[in-house]
Amino acid sequence: MTIAAKERVLNINTINPLIKNVEYAVRGKLAIRAEEIRSDLEKGQGKYGFDRVVSCNIGNPQQLNQTPITFFRQVASLCDNPDLLKKENLALVSQLYPSDAITRAQTLLKSIGSVGAYSHSQGVPHIRDTVAQFIKERDGGHASDASHIFLTQGASSGVQTLLSMLTENEHSGIMIPIPQYPLYSATLALYGAVPVNYYLDETTGWSLDIAQLTESVTSARKQGTDVKALVIINPGNPTGQCLTAENLKEIITFCYEQRLVLLADEVYQTNIYEPETRPFVSFKKALMDHPSAEVREGVELVSFHSISKGMVGECGRRGGYFECVNLDSQVLDQIYKMSSVSLCPNLHGQILVDLMCNPPRVGEASYESYSNEIKTIYESLRRRSKKLEDVFNKMEGVSCQSAQGSMYLFPQVTLSQKVVDAAAKEGLAPDAYYSHAMLEATGVCVVPGSGFGQKENTWHFRSTFLPEEHLFDQFCSGIEKFHSDFLQKHV
Amino acid sequence: MTIAAKERVLNINTINPLIKNVEYAVRGKLAIRAEEIRSDLEKGQGKYGFDRVVSCNIGNPQQLNQTPITFFRQVASLCDNPDLLKKENLALVSQLYPSDAITRAQTLLKSIGSVGAYSHSQGVPHIRDTVAQFIKERDGGHASDASHIFLTQGASSGVQTLLSMLTENEHSGIMIPIPQYPLYSATLALYGAVPVNYYLDETTGWSLDIAQLTESVTSARKQGTDVKALVIINPGNPTGQCLTAENLKEIITFCYEQRLVLLADEVYQTNIYEPETRPFVSFKKALMDHPSAEVREGVELVSFHSISKGMVGECGRRGGYFECVNLDSQVLDQIYKMSSVSLCPNLHGQILVDLMCNPPRVGEASYESYSNEIKTIYESLRRRSKKLEDVFNKMEGVSCQSAQGSMYLFPQVTLSQKVVDAAAKEGLAPDAYYSHAMLEATGVCVVPGSGFGQKENTWHFRSTFLPEEHLFDQFCSGIEKFHSDFLQKHV
């Protein structure tokens, strides 16, 4: 007799109920269906009106053939195979590797030992020094303390660590933007904390208004929520806005007045497409530049960065860091303890953090090729962002704010009552219904707006603009055709 | 005015209280002190009677200069730098790399794409197929389902995922051995689940007795604990015992009768030092060989493995997997969902899982060097294990069970009342006091038995036997001298 599922010790009724509440749309139902189609196409099965699945649901540039930075990979491969650095091989190896890649690998290995060894749980000290120096240079000379920097396996794991720390009990609340990146809502659901939503204003380019923040925290506290922290994603995900220095200053003052820890998700800090009018300013710099000493010393800030985004795009390595400013030293000890339970972040991610924060400099052998590669990727991303934005804005009933930063567009789509009814019949949100239809018609996989949160009765989807440039026109026209067919079908 | 620590929003009184309860001795106070000394020695500061710190607190072989497996590193470095696989470079590259390393890298990259791209959240399908094939071969032909295998960032993260799933509420209990690897107690503390202790019997080589398991589960249930799962570490950590097939069968029957999910930590499965009398048998094989079909289909088993241990020792890459057997399909969906929130395990860890599970075969270019490297490391580990065991057993008041497996010895030390009193004065457990004294006298860092749990009023410490063989005699005599001095000082 086979044991029926309901009789299992661990089943859907006995599992940790918080886990059941977790939703993560970026890799949800639609992404699973996309994988099925991809597998069908590989096997030559199924009938589809397209020959490939295009994954625009996730910022995964190298999956869509973005070329990795040559210097980074050269150094990483030398660290992986230190036999190449042996004297007897150097003549051959010098024909394959530039001199600065060899020197950098030697320097890294001197401080790391072996990439196969656990490092310090907080990350290799030498690499944390590199990060501190990077932050100092980025922020106009404000010092950064390497002992307050933690290397992580991607920004996500750092965010999870901090949210876990902040969850004192079931009344603990964390302010998150709507729309938001669902890592936040998923993690809060897992820890049983209260998401305290604040809305970004689509009509003014997804701007962030202090009045809206104040209203949100006040109302949550009135309802008994112990609001502890504010999450800001800048540049925005999924919304792409890039905040001004003035806005950052207001936000910091708000955190001081409301006694909120500031969690700054700054993983898109180099994905800036309007650098003259909207340059990236870090919250660390804005804090250090704040006119009030009480604010500068009072606001607890944790800033997250990653090797997965920007022009680096090394998602698969899982690397990142967070910097803590004004955190209680006992809290830092607890963060260290929790890092030590997971032993250490993987060394390949750590190495890439070092390289991202300290790339080839003027005069070094790889400088020119490095700069060209970065520039090529950057300009292409900017071109594609503008092109896709135009496509969306020309589509009937669609409006799309421009991406000042990040890797995404988040257009609003007007959907008819017929769509709403058809979606309800299938138990889907209207935007999920629309996105499923897009996948089945074009092979393009996006994420429905309901996965990020949106103003009631508005519908959106998030799409990356990462498909390769030589396929981009075809990609755009596929979406245009789908949209117009979809409208006709649902008049 | 500087804001005092007690005024911080996030401080030791407002932090998640479960985090405060977490203890992780492997990287606790003693390890932090060892880091201080190491840093002093590097800077030429401080006065110590030794010139290096020897980290025996953690199974981190490559930190102590264990050589990585050449073939593994060759393939990994080619995957990292795919330019080396370009036609124009192959002539040069063939002088540096054997043909099978090149072929393997090509195969892996074909299925992975780029190591810089997020993979399937469960791990690259091709690599999961490799794992399934490995399990099948290891377990005498019993099939393994790749769709029930999850690649992870080291075994630890897999264990944490499962313990999180199993924690339905604060009454949920998980059976763990005493002594245990503190990942388990730390994780249960973090999730607020109840550790249900069962004792291993030191007098019979840390054997595992069903009567003891039964007593433990019965008593916990009487006290209202909802005992859900049994953790077995085999080979044992810190205890080194290797269970017989007969014992495994009894344990499985026990889980069936008591309705317990079986979590099998089998990361030391190739660290087997008495293979004739105590070969490693996996729980998966024991389950599939169980005479009762109801048991075979009824017992829910999750087995964990890692690239960090064995002769591979690639700790710093953070790679591993777990295989689920008889798990409810809805539970598998939830595991997948939680994996997707962390996006994917790092690709360098995944690649090493592939290589560990499918090493060079007879007739392939790297087979001979691979086998020799594995054999050399294995025999050296076995020699060192026996040598250190002998040293411990010759020390006054010390008795040490032999390591049938794993990387550790866990000797019992008789400590005088004078030690107990001196330790109490410093607020330390007697074994922590002893271990601190050892570190200060010799530079050898071990872990006090109280970090793993031990029978009341017995004192132990855990030491790896990983110091390099040419330094091993010196390492041993340092400990002997310390111990004899310590006894004299505390008569």
UniProtKB/TrEMBL annotation, chains A, B:
<keyword id="KW-0808">Transferase</keyword>
<dbReference type="GO" id="GO:0042853">
    <property type="term" value="P:L-alanine catabolic process"/>
</dbReference>
<feature type="domain" description="Aminotransferase class I/classII large">
    <location>
        <begin position="96"/>
        <end position="468"/>
    </location>
</feature>
<keyword id="KW-0663">Pyridoxal phosphate</keyword>
<dbReference type="InterPro" id="IPR004839">
    <property type="entry name" value="Aminotransferase_I/II_large"/>
</dbReference>
<keyword id="KW-0032">Aminotransferase</keyword>
<comment type="subunit">
    <text>Homodimer.</text>
</comment>
<dbReference type="GO" id="GO:0008483">
    <property type="term" value="F:transaminase activity"/>
</dbReference>
<dbReference type="GO" id="GO:0030170">
    <property type="term" value="F:pyridoxal phosphate binding"/>
</dbReference>
<comment type="similarity">
    <text>Belongs to the class-I pyridoxal-phosphate-dependent aminotransferase family. Alanine aminotransferase subfamily.</text>
</comment>
<dbReference type="InterPro" id="IPR015424">
    <property type="entry name" value="PyrdxlP-dep_Trfase"/>
</dbReference>
<dbReference type="InterPro" id="IPR015421">
    <property type="entry name" value="PyrdxlP-dep_Trfase_major"/>
</dbReference>
<dbReference type="InterPro" id="IPR015422">
    <property type="entry name" value="PyrdxlP-dep_Trfase_small"/>
</dbReference>
<dbReference type="Pfam" id="PF00155">
    <property type="entry name" value="Aminotran_1_2"/>
</dbReference>
<protein>
    <recommendedName>
        <fullName>Glutamate pyruvate transaminase</fullName>
    </recommendedName>
</protein>
<dbReference type="InterPro" id="IPR045088">
    <property type="entry name" value="ALAT1/2-like"/>
</dbReference>
